[in-house]
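Q: Structure tokens for this one, please.
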Amino acid sequence: MSFAENLRNELIYSDIKIKELAHATNIPYTTLLSYMNGKGCLPNVDAGVKIARALNVSVEYLVTGKDDIYTSHVKSLYDIFDRITEQLQELIASIPKHK
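A: Here is the predicted structure, written as tokens:
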């Protein structure tokens, strides 16, 4: 995904309007629109950091759509789910069957 798509998706996910992001980052509304139009306009590093902080994501996520911290958290959640599932299956198997 592109920066524009990642930014757009994160705004939707966070339920933040562009005007609110402009206010939170002190980046002009029209500048933010130019980042989102998908024509390759990218923010400088300072603006990218401001946007990432305001959206509570990493700059890496906005640029690549991937984030090592996010990936490791998701993997941890899957590991926990697998353990719970195994424990639940064992618990269910241990329940005496009534006829």
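A few notes: The mean pLDDT is 84. DSSP finds six helices and no strands in the chain.
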